[in-house]
Protein: Ornithine decarboxylase
Organism: Melanomma pulvis-pyrius CBS 109.77
Amino acid sequence: MAPSALTPTEEYHLSYKDLQSIDSNLGTTAYHGAGKAKELIGDALKSRVEAIDQDTCGVGEEDAFFVGDLGEVYRQHLRWKKNLGRVKPHYAVKCNPDPQVLRLLSELGTGFDCASKTEIEQVLKMGIDPSRIIYAQPCKTKSYVRYAAQAGVKQMTFDNADELYKTKQLFPDAELFLRILTDDSASLCRLSQKFGASLDTTAELLELAKTLELNVVGVAFHVGSGASDPKAFVKAVQDARFVFDQAADLGFNMHTLDVGGGFTGDQSFEPMAAVLSASLDAYFPPQVRIIGEPGRYYVATAFTIACHVIARRTVADATLGTTSYMLYLNDGVYGNFSSIIFDHQHPVPRVLKCGDDVLYDTGRSGYDTPSMIEYSIWGPTCDGIDVISSSCAFPETVNCGDWLYFEDMGAYTKCSATRFNGFSDTHDVVYVCSEPGASALLGL
Ligand SMILES: *Cc1c(COP(=O)(O)O)cnc(C)c1O
């Protein structure tokens, strides 16, 4: 597969076929889909848990499982197109390399941000053209660079001199993006302690790239994962402009700005996108191509997980005269709740099945029901750190064999699960699709 040269104004071939009609329907179809989503997810959860009899089932049949709504990924894409139309998304595969999510995004015409040989390979195997991939890891393994060169994945980032020498040696035709440091103090997961060239080093790096006759085509930044402050984006865009001008002085013709990831899918997205769009238009003329690397934005809300209550301990406090319960689930921080440790998430427990009653989307969350029965929720490993919630409350008495569920479990969850203590790091995903547009693209 020969990489096709991607000029600043070119669209990907599959892009946004029916975008006009989609955009005009957004708000009607989309909300219809969002309502439909609950119904589909609820049905999928219900039929799976009702089919499991813990007294007779085979080993692992009662394991935690996900329900993934591909329609939600589709809606997020439309929302992106509507609010950040100038920015071509390159989905950050590390966030959740779910094959159906990748397939849908591929059909929607997005690009992909990969950080390792395995991620690049997974995307290429789907038949994606290498020009749709950016190898956005500024500090790369030599053998991986050789692999990228051989596979024709030209776009890659760098932020230090050694990486430039490495590129000169292994992949002199690479299309390089200079990753700059940003102020990420307002983000959930800070990245700038680790990556990014500070603005007092960019001139030196560009000069070295010039001496080595390397092809620097743009600037990249990442304001930190789960960014909460739109001002961070504005500052980063201004800094990128500064580096574009520096590069022009040295005779480079930069044509692409990569605004990275960090977008959240909550209601702060629209105002954030408005601020970012305005600053892009203020600092970068239309012929400059803009790409982004959203990860969590696309998938966080698309996955729900159901976990089985495998054990329970009753804690009676004689002095206070209260009774609370410790619930032990078959998934925890060494598994899909790794997001609690690595991503500072706070998954919200809800009761899915209590005795014979399936309660999906009926009760309040474990954090909105004060003065009811108190619980703490634990994972299955032997480590005391394996706690999902140190205190929550449900009106129901939850027993062994019941099920809990947690929404918004799509980002940085299963991708960082381990096999510690011999528990499984792979869990079934039951797919549903609440948007007909997505079903059509996937042939479902
Ligand atoms: C992790 C990462 C992303 C995705 O970040 P999100 O916060 O999930 O959007 C994008 N780009 C790079 C270089 C990353 O390391």
Observations:
- The domain at 300-432 is CATH 2.40.37.10 (Lyase, Ornithine Decarboxylase; Chain A, domain 1).
